[in-house]
Amino acid sequence: METKDHFEVIFARTYPDFTKKLVGKIGNLTFNEIRVCMYLRMGYSNKEICSQLDISAQTISNLRSGLRKKMGLPRGQDLTAAILCL
Fold it and tell me: Is 1 helix (H, G, I), strand (E, B) or coil?
């Protein structure tokens, strides 16, 4: 299992402008919401994100729901697809 620091370094090298675009578009994100977006951008499943962040399935569900609200996405719209468009 990779360390969180290692993931963030790899992510920053792979997607250097993603976090800036994400915060610029949404603005009021928590640190955990940003990290979830980073993992979704890298193609991680909910189960993998839970494992990496050591959070429960309910927590990831709550984070994803909050992200949808902040992004103005309807309930049925794919959060990952919206993140990939950033």
Answer: coil
For residue 59, the model assigns a pLDDT of 97
Report whether 77 contacts 68 (CB < 8 A).
yes
Q: What is the pTM of this model?
A: 0.88
Which residue range is the domain that position 19 belongs to?
4-84
As for how many domains the chain has, the answer is 1
Contact 11, 42 (CB under 8 A): yes
Note whether 9 and 19 are within 8 A (CB): no
The token pair at 69 is 């609200």
Tens-place pLDDT, residues 70-85: 999 987 889 999 999 9
